[in-house]
Structure formats: structure tokens, C-alpha cells
Design a protein that fits this description.
The protein is mainly α. Among the domains are: about 80-305, no CATH class; about 390-500, Cytochrome Bc1 Complex, Chain D, domain 2 (Orthogonal Bundle). Helices cover about 40% and strands about 5% of the residues. A hairpin with a 2-residue loop joins strand 1 (about 35) and strand 2 (about 35-40). The longest helix has about 40 residues, at about 45-80.
Length: about 500
């Protein structure tokens, strides 16, 4: 910054030098001082500065060009991906044979009765349940499949579309348009779709299954209900921003069978990674809302205040040491000797997995059991420093547990088999993230009513009974009692969870 003129000497040259008189002798490149007077830099100095500026500008321009080119390549790949290698209609016989073998390995007919294997509508209905499509495409109190349900995201609200064959829905679509939406994430008019519709997973669905889904959608009763415009903030609301997102995070390509695994494992991978889109919840999303399809390392479910635990970490929800039958039982009924489902996962069991065939449940169990284990996770909630529990707080938590919890869960946290879960040694109790515990105590916990377990036991809410301090005290107690070793729950954590929409 240029300093005020020095009244003791000439000031004109200091206005050009860019230095203050107090800065001392300058280098030849920035001017010099003789006898208290400042001289203008030589012409060569300005020329070198101009050349340096041009070089910096050219370097910046080159960087922009490279970035634009990279985004362009990424965008092209997001539109084409490895489709040529995966499409069963590929020209090369070897590629076509490999794709056909891959499709056979993930074929849905193995999980269906023989009478339904060749019936597109029946098969499509089954696949729609495997994908839990109706849960999003039916508004509360609205007509089934007619859309209108708002899906909250960190960037605003996305409204699910009308899937019935009415002109306001899919009435003007063809099977190829529907395949394009699943595989490429584009609407009939070419408009890019928002990934709240999980085409990042559905791109793995085979063309045969997409056509079966389409046949089922066309069999639905038409419902005249125009699609509601999304309510997203700028610039997320623009197609160009969505194009950049897709260039970074989306590649189309159908599921490829792993030749090292058997047919059951490959079928399970197809359901978990494709139609089931399990990692949409069981993975951490970055600041732009992207997650990795193959990642099952756990994460907070956006806008729901529930934590989907890691399916790889042994201290969270890894199934590596589970019997296959118990994994399938949990998916079919929402309950098993080792765990029960609550919250968003209970809804998945209610609307989706309980309707799957025993073969498909077994296949999913095989795949989930094979997920490579990771190192135990550490506490991820840093809202408050973990401090030792004071004796008074521990006694308070123990008393609250005796008054409100022990009648069902037992004085030693042993629970009641088939009714009330055991709390001693329960991984759900000692999860590094405490969001689910707080949700269950405040709002209650209710398992899904399924064909295999039509009358599940539930837990009443304590939102009107316990204060934030009470909830923190009782949860801290049970996380450190009966051999459990987990950090305390703070009153601040409880207050934060209570303020979030469930």
C-alpha cells in the first residue's frame, strides 16, 4: 500500500514505486533511493513484470482449459461410461457373450416362481418391491405411484415423479425412455435427473429387468397428477451444475458378474448394489451429496437424523461372523437373535425385503457376509469433548434406567429373547455415533410388522417424560454398564437430536 507523502522530500517517485519510504533500500527491480529521493523503476523492470503477469495469466488460462477438458471427458464418460463393453447388444461376439453370461448370473428368474418368470408384469412388480420404489413415489395419503412426495436434501426438496401411465406421468413414454432414465439418469426429453432418484445405482439394472419394471408401471391405474417442480437452491437447481456433478460422480454401466464368485454371491451383489441401493444410506456423502456405490462404511442419512451403521466395521454392523440364516431372517422379518431393525431400516424391511424370495434373501446374505471387514471405527461425534462421567451423573443414569427401562430390558441389560433386545454387549448401544440411541429414547422404537413377525414389540417414546439431561444420563449409563465400553452421551447431543426432524 502507498504511504502518505513525506513532507521532508519529494513524493512523486514513491507513488510509482509501490513501497513506503520506511521500507529501506529497494532492489533494482522495484526502484532505488538516493539521497532520500525515490526513483522510478527502469523500463526493463516494468517489462519483466508485464511478462511475468502474462505468464501467470497464460498458466491460469491453461489450468482452466485443462479443467474444462477434464470435466468434458468426465461428462462424456457420465453419458457413455462402459456401456459398450457391458451392453448385451454389443457388436463383438466375445463382448456379447460375456455380457450375456453376466446378465444370466444376475437373472431375477432364479428368485421367482416358474409361473412368474416369463410374466413381465409380475416380474416387474417383484423388482419394484426389491427397489422399494413405491416408498418414494407415493405421497402420504396420496394415490399409489402417483408421485408428489417431497424428498428433503441438504440442497432443497426434490419431488418424486408420477409413475402411472397417465399423460401427466409416464403415459407418453416408451420402454427405451424408461431404460434411459434408469441407466443414464435422463428424462424422456433429455433433461438430466437429480440423483435423489438413485440412478447411480439403478444404472446397474439389466435391460431385461428394466423392461419388466416398465411393463409393471404400464399396468398401474392411471392417475392424473402433474409432477411438482423441485424446490432446490441455486445453483443446484440448474442443469449445468447437475452436469458438473455427473461429470465428477456418475458413470453408467450394468452390473458385471465376478467370475471368482458363485451365482448366489453375484445375485446378492446385484440386489445390494443395484436395485436395493443399500449404499445410498450405508455410506458417507461428501459436501456435494455424492457417495460411492461400493462403499458400505456407514454414514448419517441426510435430513433424517439417523445413522446407517457400517456393514464392514466389526464394532458397528458387520455381518462377517453371522450365520447366513440369521442375516436372511433379519431382512425377512426385521428381527433376529442378534439384532432388530428400527427407523429407516424398518421401513425398508416393511416395504421391500420381506417381500423377496428366500433365494434372493439368501443371496443378499451371502454377499453382505462377504463384505471385507475394516478396522473398528472411532467416535465420529465431536460436538463435545468426551469427559469421564461424574459419580452423581452415573447414579442418576442408573436410577432412570431402573425406573423406566429395567422392566423390559432387565436389571443386567439381558433383555427378553424374541421381545426386548439385550443391551449388554449390543453393538447398537455402543455405536460410535449416538444418533440412533437418542432417536429411539425420544421418539420410541418400532419394528416392522411382517409376515414372519406380524406383531413386533415396540418401545414407547420418552420425549415428554425425560429432559435432555435425563436422556443423556440414562444413555451414558447403559453405554458403560454390564461390560459395555463406549463414550458418554452429552446433553448437547440430545438437544441437537431433539431439534432435528425425525
Amino acid at each position: 500500500m502507498t504511504q502518505p507523502p513525506d513532507p521532508s522530500g519529494p513524493s512523486e517517485s514513491s507513488a510509482f514505486s509501490g513501497q513506503s519510504p520506511e521500507s529501506g533500500p529497494s532492489s533494482p527491480a522495484s526502484g532505488s533511493q538516493r539521497g532520500g529521493a525515490w526513483r522510478r523503476p527502469r523500463l526493463g523492470t516494468w517489462t519483466s513484470r508485464l511478462q511475468a503477469g502474462r505468464l501467470v495469466g497464460l498458466a491460469g488460462l491453461a489450468g482452466l482449459v485443462i479443467a474444462a477438458a477434464a470435466l468434458g471427458v468426465g461428462f462424456w464418460r457420465s453419458e457413455h461410461g462402459s456401456e459398450a463393453a457391458a451392453d448385451p447388444r454389443a457388436d463383438a461376439p466375445a463382448t456379447a457373450a460375456a455380457a450375456a453370461a453376466s446378465n444370466a448370473a444376475v437373472s431375477t428368474t432364479s428368485g421367482l416362481p416358474a409361473s412368474a418368470a416369463d410374466d413381465g408384469v409380475t416380474r416387474g412388480r417383484y423388482l419394484a418391491r426389491a427397489g422399494n420404489c413405491q416408498a418414494c413415489h407415493t405421497a402420504p395419503g396420496g394415490a399409489p405411484w402417483a408421485g408428489g412426495r417431497g424428498i428433503e436434501t441438504p440442497f432443497g426438496v426434490v419431488y418424486a415423479g408420477n409413475l402411472t401411465p397417465d399423460p401427466t406421468g409416464l403415459g407418453g413414454w416408451q420402454a427405451g425412455d424408461f431404460w434411459r432414465a434408469l441407466h443414464h439418469g435422463r428424462s424422456r426429453d433429455g433433461r438430466m435427473l437429480y440423483p435423489a432418484f438413485p440412478y447411480t445405482h439403478y444404472t446397474r439394472v439389466t435391460r431385461a429387468d428394466a423392461d419388466a419394471l416398465w411393463a409393471f408401471m404400464q399396468s398401474l391405474p392411471p392417475v392424473a397428477q402433474a409432477n411438482r417442480p423441485h424446490e432446490l437452491r441455486w445453483p443446484v437447481s440448474t442443469q449445468w451444475a447437475l452436469g458438473v456433478w455427473r461429470a465428477l460422480y456418475f458413470r453408467p454401466g450394468v452390473q458385471q458378474a465376478d467370475a471368482r464368485q458363485d451365482a448366489s454371491w453375484n445375485r446378492g451383489a446385484y440386489l445390494v448394489q443395484g436395485l436395493g441401493h443399500c449404499s445410498a444410506c450405508h455410506s458417507t456423502r461428501n459436501a456435494l451429496g455424492a457417495s460411492e456405490v461400493l462403499d458400505l462404511s456407514g454414514g448419517m442419512i441426510p435430513m433424517q437424523a439417523w445413522y446407517a451403521p457400517s456393514l464392514a466395521a466389526p464394532n458397528e454392523a458387520s455381518l462377517a461372523d453371522w450365520p447366513l440364516a440369521e442375516i436372511a431372517q433379519l431382512l425377512a422379518t426385521g428381527n433376529s437373535p442378534r439384532a432388530s431393525t428400527l427407523g429407516p431400516m424398518a421401513e425398508v424391511v416393511l416395504h421391500s425385503t420381506q417381500h423377496l424370495s428366500p433365494d434372493d434373501l439368501a443371496a443378499m446374505a451371502v454377499f453382505l457376509k462377504s463384505v471385507p471387514p475394516t478396522a473398528p471405527t472411532e467416535a465420529r461425534n465431536t460436538s463435545m469433548e468426551r469427559v469421564p462421567v461424574k459419580a452423581g451423573a452415573a447414579l442418576r443414569g442408573e436410577k432412570l434406567y431402573g425406573d423406566h427401562c429395567a422392566a423390559c430390558h432387565g436389571a443386567q441389560g439381558e433383555g427378553v429373547a424374541g421381545a426386548y433386545p439385550r443391551l449388554a454387549g449390543n453393538r447398537a448401544v455402543t455405536l460410535p455415533v449416538t444418533a440412533n440411541l437418542v432417536q429411539v429414547v425420544i421418539h420410541g422404537g418400532f419394528g416392522p410388522a411382517t409376515a414372519g413377525r406380524p406383531r413386533p414389540f415396540g418401545m414407547p417414546p420418552f420425549a415428554m417424560v425425560m429432559s435432555d439431561a435425563d436422556v443423556a444420563a440414562v444413555l451414558t449409563y447403559l453405554r458403560q454398564a454390564w461390560g459395555n465400553q463406549a463414550g458418554p452421551v452429552s446433553e448437547l447431543e440430545v438437544a441437537q437430536q431433539r431439534s432435528l426432524a425425525r
